[in-house]
Design brief:
2 domains, alpha+beta, 5 helices, elongated, 3-stranded antiparallel β-sheet
């Protein structure tokens, strides 16, 4: 269980991103979360850059939210990731937002599903609306 928290060693509170360290433990500086390490940050990250990997702590989302500065900061950062480069979220572009969900005919009040929910198959239903339902999934 302790090893699952090693992501904390790579989170740089000064930048708010998971970032590479030098052999002596110092942070790589300067560091640009999108461009450091060459195209796609390939020298520091596998297949993505710091922006994408910043949300890859699936085993402890509440702690990731805390590291990111709390709910509001986390939501703003997530919106910023998906609003680049047009500054329009995917849902706004489509004109629809997820309002509610269901899984296997039952209401789903959380914004995620677990492996056990779908290991034997399943049906995910989305109800879309023209405005975001800010109460859903909290």
């Amino acid at each position: 269980m302790k090893r699952s928290e090693n992501y904390r060693n790579l989170f740089n509170p000064a930048t708010g991103f998971f970032a590479p360290r030098m052999a002596d433990g110092r942070w790589v500086d300067p560091f640009d979360p999108q461009l450091s390490g060459g195209v796609g940050s390939r020298l520091y990250f596998a297949e993505n850059n710091a922006w994408t990997w910043n949300f890859s702590v699936q085993q402890n989302i509440p702690d990731l939210i805390k590291l990111s500065g709390g709910n509001d900061s986390f939501i703003k950062r997530l919106d910023r990731l998906f609003n680049e480069p047009t500054k329009i979220s995917k849902w706004q572009f489509m004109g629809q937002f997820p309002d509610a969900t269901g899984l296997n005919g039952k209401e789903l009040s959380r914004p995620f599903i677990s492996h056990s929910d779908i290991v034997n198959g399943g049906k995910l239903q989305l109800v879309m609306g023209d405005r975001p339902n800010k109460k859903w999934g909290r």
